[in-house]
Specification:
about 280 residues, alpha+beta, Double-stranded beta-helix, 8-stranded mixed beta sheet, 3-stranded antiparallel beta sheet, 6 helices, 18 strands, globular
Length: about 280
């Protein structure tokens, strides 16, 4: 085995070095990386130099590529890849500041799908001169930090999810295809480890079952403000050639905006097929 794996933080995250994804990867190395991802939830694979085709094929180590609804950002020749380029901003905040994709809130991906992705992958193609980190939050640890009575209440709740209406990167065809409301458990059980995690995308949360929309959003915001502590988070500082894979079933993530988006922060994004949350 040539891959070297080291922890990124005390609680979660692992770094992989000594592996080149542009060519064949041994089964020993692939198995070691899958195990690290299962146990540590975020895997940062350093020093990669990948053409789009190599990127797509190499990620089959972790799962099958999934269709994304970011229809206006998909690479024409490789539609498994969405190109996230900060110079092409889709929304602005009320104060006029650009809000790059993924920076609105802590979230898990594509909860408007019946089978949301089990993993998301970002590959660094171009980075700003400073900033542009990605934050990750271990929501298994966040759930475990709550007392048993609160856990018992949260585990009863279900979210109703729908695609956002105020984003410019989804065309009408994709909005129609992926626009049906999807109901998911608010507390998700990991299919491999059995651990439970808070599972939510605030931007796609229409409401909780039996709740009003405003009440639902206020509840989620208050809960996340309380549980997203430094103890359960890891902030990834990107390096050229980084490829980061993470487990959407256990984590929330957010793109930090402490950089100049006009410089160009370009990440190639893939999602990997998941299953129905339980």
């Amino acid at each position: 085995m040539t891959v070297n794996l080291t922890p990124l933080s005390d609680l979660f995250g692992a770094e992989a070095t000594g592996v080149d994804l542009s060519g064949p990867v041994s089964e020993d190395d692939a198995s070691a990386m899958r195990d690290a991802l299962r146990d540590r939830l975020v895997l940062v694979i350093r020093d990669q130099n990948l053409e789009p085709k190599q990127y797509v094929e190499s990620m089959r180590i972790f799962g099958d590529p999934m269709r994304q609804h970011l229809s206006k950002l998909l690479m024409p020749e490789h539609p498994e890849i969405a190109v996230l380029d900060s110079r092409i901003a889709n929304t602005k905040r009320d104060d006029g500041k650009v809000m790059p994709i993924g920076s609105r809130d802590w979230h898990t991906d594509h909860t408007n799908h019946a089978k949301p992705p089990k993993m998301t992958v970002l590959y660094a193609v171009k980075l700003p001169s400073k900033g542009g980190d990605t934050g990750f939050a271990n929501m298994q640890a966040a759930y475990a930090s709550l007392d048993e009575s609160e856990q018992a209440e949260l585990i009863k709740m279900k979210t109703v999810n729908s695609i956002e209406q105020d984003v410019g990167y989804v065309d009408d065809k994709a909005r129609k295809e992926f626009g049906a409301a999807q109901i998911h458990p608010f507390i998700r059980t990991h299919p491999e480890t059995g651990k439970k995690a808070i599972y939510v995308h605030p931007g796609k949360l229409a409401r909780f079952e039996g709740w009003e929309p405003a009440e639902s959003k206020a509840f989620v915001n208050k809960l996340l403000d309380r549980v997203l502590t430094r103890d359960v988070t890891y902030r990834h500082k990107w390096r050229p050639g980084d490829l980061v894979v993470w487990d959407n079933r256990a984590l929330l993530h957010v793109a930090h905006t402490d950089y100049d988006p006009s410089e160009g922060r370009i990440l190639h994004r893939m999602c990997l097929e998941g299953d129905v949350p339980v």
